[in-house]
Amino acid sequence: MRSPTALLLLPLLLCCGCSRPGEIVGAVEADLPLPPGFALAFNHRDGSRYQSPLTGQWRNGDDLEQMIVDAIEGADTSLLVAVQELSLPSLAKHLIAAHRRGVQVKLVLENSYSTPWSDQQPSHLPKHQRHRWHQLQHLADADGDGITTAEEARQGDAVGLLLQAGVPLLDDTEDGSSGSGLMHHKFVVVDDRSVITGSANFTSSGVHGDAGKPRTRGNVNHVLRIDSPALAAVFRREFERMWGDGPGGAKDSRFGLGKGGQTDTERVQVGDVEIEVLFAPHPKRNPAHGLNWLEALLASAKHQIDMALFVFSAQQLADVLEERANNGVKIRLVADPGFASRSFSEVLDLLGVALPDRDCKLEANNKPFTQPIRGVGTPRLARGDKLHHKFAVIDNKTVITGSFNWSPSAAHTNDETLLVIHSPQLAKHFTREMDRLWNGAELGITPHIQRKLDRQRIKCGDGVERG
């Protein structure tokens, strides 16, 4: 039986036209409409509830997985999926069902996550992958008896199920390389008419929470669906660059800088909304790269910049924010607590402090603000959850989103999506999510950051800048 949230979701993807009113997944606030052809979900927001598949308990938030499932169920001809990681068995089973009913299903994954986990030996895995293996094994324990049987492991292994069913799948080694920096996209193209994208990987940790940890609610993420054949065509072209002729063929798949020919943003009009799309990476010498575009967008702000960021490690963006702050632009930043206190985090720049790394070196060209700003916070999250958004709102009318972290790696190494959407209506929804995070955030130099500063100051003094 579907949950009330799922019942609200169902009509969204059965109608594929762009002329119907936009809807937000979950309980709709009547005074906050979306542009026609748009749907949007936030898995931590307070305005809706759904039943968690992990615990069976009702929880606040939109069901991101159900939004994707409804897209799969509504597909008639094709599903092109490019996502860093897909480990939700239920999503895999819906993709298999679509494949069996004649829908063309193709998947591109990051090579670190394209091997069935049930085929791996945890003792042979690096620490992060070993932790993931244990999480997925726990998730696969369907009867909750603490023992994951071979059949439970088989049924709980999303990639294994896809491969057994003959669903075409490749990763970023298909070009004959050892892989790009990261195949970091998170998008689905449905029937060449709709695009689903956002910040969420298709994992339990990215959507619902960690198995065996009922307090977790998943990394803080959003998913956006846009009904537009023109936009779908833009994303299809990116998918086809990576796909080439598919698995096992000539090494004509293209990832990372090997994709080549990517110089400019592409523009699409969806009703009254202009959308600009840039697919990374680009060489540093190419002026059209993503960090330069973000710098120009931030520099255009006249009144306010709101940011909710997982990774922020690009000095040039910190520099333009300082310039904007000095010119009276209001700046709010909420950052992932785990990332904010790293030595190369630009969050520290906004706070006016510098943190030497483990070798007592400071980041080259590091430039803490001479006048620290007050608008910096880290949200209080359950242990294990991360703030995984990558969005900004400029002057309450322009939304920046996608898979693109604000880092040199995103611009110059990884396969990424960077979207800029010009819509005051859409911006209100992201501002509401920003307000929610801001109201629960710990502002300024937190005790955690201060402890790290004190430890490194004792060990390193002021540190020495890298050459």
Concise summary:
By secondary structure, this protein is of the alpha/beta class.
Average pLDDT works out at 91
Radius of gyration: 22 Å
**Classification by helices and strands:** alpha/beta
What is the β-strand count?
21
- Strand order of the biggest β-sheet: 11-12-19-18-17-13-14-16-20
What's the helical proportion of residues? Answer: 25-40%
The major pleated sheet works out as: 9 strands, mixed
**Morphology call:** globular
Strand content: 15-25%
Which blocks of ≥5 consecutive residues have pLDDT under 50? 1-21, 26-30
The N- to C-terminal Cα distance equals 61 Å
Report the total helices: 15
Features:
467 residues; alpha/beta; nine-stranded mixed beta sheet; eight-stranded mixed beta sheet; globular; disordered N terminus
Question: Any overview of this molecule?
Answer:
About 30% of the residues lie in helices and about 20% in strands. With about 475 residues, it is α/β, with parallel strands linked by helices. The chain is globular, with a radius of gyration of 22 Å. Strand 3 and strand 4 form a beta hairpin. The N terminus is likely disordered. The chain contains 15 helices and 21 strands. The protein has a 9-stranded mixed beta sheet with strand order 11-12-19-18-17-13-14-16-20, with helices on both faces. Strands 1-2-10-9-8-5-6-7 form an 8-stranded mixed beta sheet, sandwiched between helices. Strands 3-4 form a two-stranded antiparallel sheet. The chain starts with a helix and ends with a strand.
